[in-house]
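re: ur question from earlier - yeah i can do the single chain one, its not a big deal. heres the input i used so u can compare w yours
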Amino acid sequence: MPYLTHAKVIDAYCLNCAEMTSPPINRSPKRFVDLVMARKPMAIVVHSQAANQLIPHGFCGIYPILVQNPSFQQDYHHVATMGDRGDDFYYWIFSYCGK
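and the output i got, formated as tokens:
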């Protein structure tokens, strides 16, 4: 997506994110979530194990911490879910509605 849209993207799976492995984050899911919430991205995509209920995927431990973060719960609302029946995970898309 960042290549097609030229948008700034924070990779929560950390496959393309040097910040996750560098100070001050040093592989800390909580510190990574704090960074994301400080940047207030316009959209956040959370991988869920279900289409009809948000069950955050636990890879790297980031999504469970993210969806429990008070800023996420207050400033983001669910706008769409993508995936097909039988998929291993679904994309839950949240849009920033905070100040």
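The chain has one domain: 2-77. not sure if urs matches, ping me
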